[in-house]
Every structure is written in C-alpha cells, then in structure tokens.
Amino acid sequence: MALCNAHYYATRDPLGAAGDFTTAPEISQMFGELIGLWAADLWLRAGKPDVAWVELGPGRGTLSADALRAIAKAVLTPPAHLVETSPLLREAQRRAVPGATHHDGIDTLPTDRPLIVVANEFFDALPIRQIVRTEAGWRERMVDCDGDRFVPTVGAQRFDAVVPDAVSDGDVIETSPASVAILRDLAARIVAQGGALLAIDYGYEGPLAGDTLQALRRHRFADPFAAPGEQDLTAHVDFAALAEAAHAEGAVAHQVTTQGALLGALGITARAATLARAAPNRQSEIEAAWRRLCAPDAMGTLFKALAITAPGWPMPGGFG
Ligand code: SAH
C-alpha cells in the first residue's frame, strides 16, 4: 500500500474533477480559512508564542494557502513547513505557499518552537495492516501474485495472540502502525515544544470498522488489488487509536468531533453568508459547498476531527 501510494502521488495530481477524488480544501476556500482561524484563535489564547505552521500531505497546498492568508489578518505570519513526499505535488505547493520549507518526514521539523500541525486526508493514505478471521484462526491478510495480477491471501503465521479479547464478532481488524508511529512522534514533539495538531479525515472512533481498504479512480470505487500505483488507496482512519497514541505520549487528546460540527462551531454559516453577499452571482455555488462540507449525508458526519494539544495549552475552538 505504501509503495503503491508513493508511486501514485509521485506521478500525478489526483485532486479535483479531472482527477480521482476531491478534498475539502478543494471544495471551498472556507475550509482552509476556518482552520487558519482555529489556529490563530488558539495561538492568541496561548499567549502569542513564536510558532511554526506545519501541514502533513498538503496536496496542492490549497489548505495552507487559504489558512495562512486568513491568519495573516490576525497578524500571525508563521514560517510554513510542509511534509510531502511527492516531487510533483511539492511543485504545486511551492506555487501556493511561496517560501515554505519542505520535509520528507516529521523528523526534520523545527525543534525550537511550538508546532501547529494540520493534516487533512493525510492519515487515510498511510498503509494499513489487516488481520482476518479464518477457519485456522486469525491471520494477516497478505498480497500474492497470480500471474500478472495481485490477489489477496492470508499469511501462514498465527495472529490470535494480538487480537484483543473484546473482539467477538467481525472478521477483519485493521491497524495502521505507520499512522500511530507518526502521531506518537508528533505528540511527543508537541508535549516537548508546545503546540497543537488538528487531523481531519474519514474514519471512525471505535467500535472496529471491519475492512475499509478502498481504491478510488475517477471518483468511483475500484478494486484495490487492481492497477497498483495507478489509483488512490485509502482506509478509514481509526481515531481512537490516534487519540490513544497522543495520550500515551502525554499530550491532551480532545473528544473527537465531526467535520460538520467543527466547521459549524468555527462559524462556516456566517462565513458562507459573507462570501455570498460579496459575490451574489456565486451564491448557489457557495451554498452547495457549505452543504457538501457540512451536511450529514455528505462529508459532515463521515469526516471526523481530532485535536491534540500540549498540556497547559488552551482548549481548541470547536472541541469540548
Ligand atoms: N491534504 C490535501 C491532500 C490529500 S491527498 C487535501 O486535503 O487536498 C494525500 C496527500 O498526502 C498528498 O499530498 C500525498 O502526496 C501526501 N502523502 C501521502 N503519503 C505520504 C507520506 N507517507 N508522507 C508524506 N506525504 C504523503
């Protein structure tokens, strides 16, 4: 999954109508602006420390561009650090966020100041492992070759010992050790340096969700084992596991909320009305974007938000 996605993102811009999927920052500028204001509000209440802005997997850089423009009005102009592995998307990000520093991973992020970290649809792109119930007990799902095709199979090793006792039904357990490792490292940084993290993604907060591995191509679901590296591979994010990882490092993990509730609390309805007043010919487009981002039958409920903060930092807006 890691290799497929590395190739996939290195060789195309997958976003938007002409690509494979559309993300919240690409739907409307309101998304990035409100996340920027979320960060600026937290920074103000934390006593205006010298912070760094960090985005994980910024795609075209739209979220950071919209957020940094909005927070510049609050007289906050932090240095921008973008964690991105795709050379092609780095180019787009350089155009959207001039002067940003790129990083291959989180190890090289600044160590001398609080970090405000934002990740939208980042964790879903990281590799997962699946443990599946078979007649011979729990085994790891593996990938085999059948001629020139990839096919799912199960490994020979027994995995029963790692299955929590609480799992009584369901046939698939997913874990994302890569996501947990990144979140733990970031949480440790935030505890040591101060700051906060906001992760938004589609996902669940327990109970176990079963098999959520999916492939998207041209805005439609596809067979995840077909066309390796040519379609977007994702899995739903286990927010309880991320919160637990933050907690294990001593960070404060706030109650997971939904994208709709978060954007509502941050004032998206008022922002949409202001934008529509300024551009009456775009009113229906702005209303449609508001609906897509917030409605329970669109992204409002499936997408969740997790905030973590350093101990002693204020409660982030929209949480608690
Ligand atoms: N956040 C953007 C893009 C989401 S797509 C948006 O909301 O529009 C996922 C992004 O994560 C892409 O920029 C992709 O290149 C990047 N990415 C995927 N795996 C990564 C990894 N292991 N390390 C760093 N970036 C990664």
Can you walk me through this structure?
Helix 4 (62-72) links the parallel strand 1 and strand 2 (80-83). The chain has helices at 2-10, 24-27, 29-45, 62-72, 87-96, 177-193, 239-248, 259-265, 268-278, 283-294; strands spanning 52-56, 80-83, 101-103, 115-120, 129-134, 137-146, 149-158, 172-175, 195-204, 214-217, 220-222, 232-234, 237-238, 252-253, 257-258, 303-309. It folds into 2 domains: 2-123 and 188-309, Rossmann fold (3-Layer(aba) Sandwich); 129-175, no CATH class. It is of the alpha/beta class. The chain is globular. The strands form 3 sheets. Strands 1, 2, 3, 4, 9, 13, 14, 15 and 16 form a 9-stranded mixed beta sheet that branches. It has a 4-stranded antiparallel beta sheet with strand order 7-6-5-8, with no helix packed on it. Helix 3 crosses helix 4 (62-72) and helix 6 (177-193) crosses helix 7. S-adenosyl-L-homocysteine binds at residues 5, 9, 15, 23, 25-26, 57-59, 63, 83-86, 89, 120-122, 125-126. Residues 5, 9, 15, 23, 25-26, 57-59, 63, 83-86, 89, 120-122, 125-126 line the site of S-adenosyl-L-homocysteine. One of its GO terms (biological process) is methylation. GO terms for molecular function: protein-arginine omega-N symmetric methyltransferase activity. InterPro entries: NDUFAF7, NDUFAF7_sf, SAM-dependent_MTases_sf.
